[in-house]
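Researcher: Structure prediction, please.
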Amino acid sequence: MRFLHTADWHLGRVYHNLSLLDDQAHLLDQFVDLVQNLNSNKQIKVGDKFAVLAFEVVYLYREINTLGFTTPKEVVKNSTTYPNKLGFDNMESFYLNVDAKPTENLSAKASINILGNVAANPIDEVFYENRTRIANITSNGTTYDLSGLERIRLYQASFTWNEKWFNLTGFYRTGHQGWGYEGDLFGLYPEANYGPNLDIYHGETLGFELEGKKAINGLKVAYGPQLWWGANPAVLVKYTRKVSIFDITGIFQDDLDKNTNTTSSVAIPLPKNRKGTVEIKTKFGPWGIQLGGIWAGSTKLGESFEIVDGTAGNYSVYTDKINSKDTWGGKAKITLQSGAINWYAQGAAMGLVADGGADYTKTFTGWRLKDSGSGNQYNFLTGLTYGMGDFQIAPNFLWQKPIIGPIPAGIVDKTTGLVATPRVIINDPFAVRTNRETVAGELLLAYDPTPATWMWEWNNDEMEDAPFAASADFVYRHLPTTQDATIGFTADRTMFVFNGSPTAHDLWETNVRIVSKINPNLGLIANLYSGNGQANGTDERVIQRYGGDLRAIYKKVKLIASVKINDWGPYDYDRDYNLTYPMQLMADLSTTASNLPNWFGLPDTRIGIRATWRSLDQYSPRYSPTTKTDASGATVADPTAIGYGNGSEWEIRTYIHFNLGK
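Model: Predicted structure follows.
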């Protein structure tokens, strides 16, 4: 058995004003050749454990081509504004992966991230490694600037333990499947797979799942401080039993504490709650029936909320309280599978605080219109699919309406002068957001000549084997009323509450997906979209957005590219504030040491180059064609100045990623 040990490379280091990059590049070329010639069947072992080392070295060159810009040419000492400069920078990010299997029924994995230098000038300023940036700490009235924190952090971990009476799994930032197909009609335990967003916003998932066997078969327990991103510390217990022709499932959830670690507006921790659900499911020939009830929100009994009634200039504001009838809800679903036709219909009546979770399951096909799972609503959905050989046509319909509507900003009681405040879910017992009044229609068209690799399966990117398969989905939403307020985040992850939401506007979107696997060495996946959109916050501008992305693999070469026109930037606060770019372009070209790159972006040994270019206008971050003097006398950016053209920013990064071992 051969061991490969390296240490103290000091990549990117300069000694006495002498760059060692040329020498290090020569050594890395030799190192890559050596890695390619290793016997991949061998593992670095210590007893029954083996370790895998992966690391990435990124060199960035970033420049601005604009009439003026808020990013400085040189680094400002102890600045906490990013990007912090123009020009060159580099990053070293190492992942030490350890797998252990002390017995046949017990295995564990862990991945540790170790940071060297972290670039401070990327135009995408929020990323996993930025945790080492300068932090301002105030103690006894004195502010200290600290840098280089958290150089070492546990990135992921998981274990499985299979015993005669149970299966026990644990996870930390590795995700898990939900219970949606196992009797969880109200979505209490969602799946927890978030892709790169979990890294970008330093999100976490942590918990355990126990599945009973033998005498306790049908029992599942989930417990942990954050079972899904944004969850409160909670325990969930599910028990399923078959009685005659009926599958009966009961679920109980109890939040043990409040999650105070809010990192993104896409994963907002809600107030503590206690919930219980029951589902009865059965089939009669081609017919399927699901009936369920939910009890939730008893922790909010007695809490006050405001109601507004009337029209502009003639509003009345009332106050009411949550009572026991507001904690109950029900749902029913019917399905029919008959030859070329599949049909479903479902409806729900949910009390003001009878909150479940969003529906992540798929019924027959890949529809986007689904039950939000929120309380304070009535809803009805129905759709059918009709198959014609390899083609499928699938219309879908949604109607929903809140029991108590939203509070628009600026409402004043005509008699008392009381100003009503738009609700927000972290401060009020309920709010109108995803449960807003909606009448929506959807038409989904699909061509799939290889139905054995279902187009809507989660791993279809990897498994699809058709020379050509495609789907096109059009959704139109009629939205007659506005929403309550929501939470936003600034670039430095400071949380705040918006004071309202935009005026109601009908929205539409079109999404096209194309998959082509011509042969095992050549394939491509493309996604195209168009539509309009509104900000999450209060900005009234309605945008018209277009774009698409492409992933292509030819033998050992992989290309990833994307184009976005008049669309939001990559972060949650871009949509919160309605920050857009006239055009965004990205291309990433890499080659791998393995036989074929993977479609999911999993770790492998590769070298590549990535380029990003964006045009900038008055709605874009950091755009400043000129400056002005504000009321305090300070010189500030003036992105709305008249007579100036668009700016642009671009970045080129080269990277080397090694994955050694199994």
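Model: The CA atoms of residues 536 and 576 lie 5 Å apart.
Researcher: Thanks, that helps.
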